[in-house]
Specification:
The chain has 4 helices and 7 strands, in the order E-H-H-E-E-E-H-E-H-E-E. By secondary structure, the protein is an alpha+beta fold. The protein has a single domain, classed as Gcn5-related N-acetyltransferase (GNAT) (Aminopeptidase, 3-Layer(aba) Sandwich), CATH 3.40.630.30. This is N-acetyltransferase.
């Protein structure tokens, strides 16, 4: 059943929703491709130089996923991809296949279009045949750059207005 994606919103993770958001998880087959929410939040705290910006994905009043980007990384740090990088996108296994991931990404893109000088969004995927998100990203318009970063394929999505 496809949900009404107009009900999808991005909300800050705070004390009131943290436990529910951290409990969200992908399928066991997908766990090799995306870190969980708790690890993602830990990464955000551990790497402030990556300029993390993260939100819970909601469908109506229910948390269904998590998204995190690097938001305008200053130039010069070759250990980071950016300046704008889709670091994590996770939709809970119980809520997949309903358009929540696509809707959340569109909301992120709307946010990025307000950011000065943002012309593209980069992301990377772990290579693999089963449960890799590569097809999802390519279907949404990301392009394979042919580059690898930290063992992952780098993709880019041009932002045209």
């Amino acid at each position: 059943m496809i949900a009404d994606v107009s009900e999808v919103t991005l909300r800050p993770v705070d004390d009131g929703n943290r436990a529910a958001v951290v409990a969200l998880d992908v399928t066991p087959a997908q766990q090799n491709y995306v870190a969980g929410v708790a690890d993602s939040i830990d990464d955000a705290l551990r790497y402030p130089e990556a300029m993390p910006w993260y939100r819970a994905i909601y469908a109506g009043d229910d948390p269904v996923g998590f998204v995190m980007i690097s938001d305008n990384i200053p130039p010069g740090d070759q250990t980071l991809l950016g300046p704008y990088f889709l670091w994590r996108l996770l939709v809970d296994a119980r809520h997949q296949g309903r358009g929540h991931g696509r809707a959340a990404l569109n909301l992120v893109l709307n946010y990025l279009r307000t950011r000065p000088g943002c012309t593209e969004l980069l992301t990377s995927v772990v290579p693999g045949e089963i449960s890799s998100p590569l097809g999802f990203y390519l279907h949404l318009g990301f392009q394979d750059t042919g580059r690898y970063f930290d063992g992952e394929r780098v993709l880019r999505l041009p932002l045209n207005g």
